[in-house]
Amino acid sequence: MDPIIDLTHITKTYRSKGKSVLALKDVTLPVEKGSFTTIVGPSGCGKSTLLKIIAGISLPYQGRLNYKGREVASINTDVGFVTQDSNLFPWLTLSENVELALKIRGVSKEQRAQAAQKLIDTMQLTGFETHYPFELSGGMQKRCSIIRTLIYDPDIILMDEPFGPLDAQTRLVLQDELLRIWDTNKKTILFVTHDLTEAIALSDKVVLFTGRPGTVKRIFDVPLPRPRNVFEIHNEKGFTDLYHEIWSHFKTEIK
User: Fold this and answer.
1) Is pLDDT at 178 greater than 80 in this prediction?
2) Nearest Cα to 13, choosing from 27, 24, 4?
3) 53: left (phi > 0), else alpha (psi -120 to 50), else beta?
4) Among 243, 246, 230, 123, which residue's Cα sits nearest to residue 171?
5) Cβ contact 147:123 at 8 Å
6) Strand, coil or helix: what is 226?
7) pLDDT 10s digits, 35-66
């Protein structure tokens, strides 16, 4: 099966104030359709930059990036992007934030309201439809930002440390809900995190980046059976061995 995303020798250099910073060097990575792939690596190694390249918002770059067989050379409107910040519009209610993409696309008010309500119910946000972002907890805001992306049904969802700012308990709940949604629709997800436990609990593959300039050091298959219980993932057979194997390579990149 051809990969839905095919990165070949991707190199990215930033230039600012007469200086050049090599963020990524020779990154080659195929991503299979319907897979859940997580990228881990030390801070500043270009993980977020890679997602921005795939989304077509960090151009130009060197190398080749094919999406569904075509080269990405501009904004990739097929992908959904969930960033570290919720980025909700403060003047819109929860429902209005979720519906926004469909409104922009000209979907009727009734249709977008129905689609939004289904996702709001799925993410256990029922009853908060008319609340504004400042009236929602951090976890609720993050749920809203995720379903705001899901509502326009992108083939690929890019997630840049989406649960990073949250407390440990809320992270686990949202990891569980994300896996439940992914198990249902099998969207292709490319997920960035610093948390090895999170990476193993969610993923089919864990991609380890080197320190800057980032490149693929090693790809680990995650053989743990699905569906997974993220709340007790440490008890899964094979988890501890895989964690220590990844960490043994990861720690050599931390400076």
Assistant:
1) yes
2) 24
3) alpha
4) 230
5) yes
6) coil
7) 999 999 998 899 999 999 999 999 889 999 99
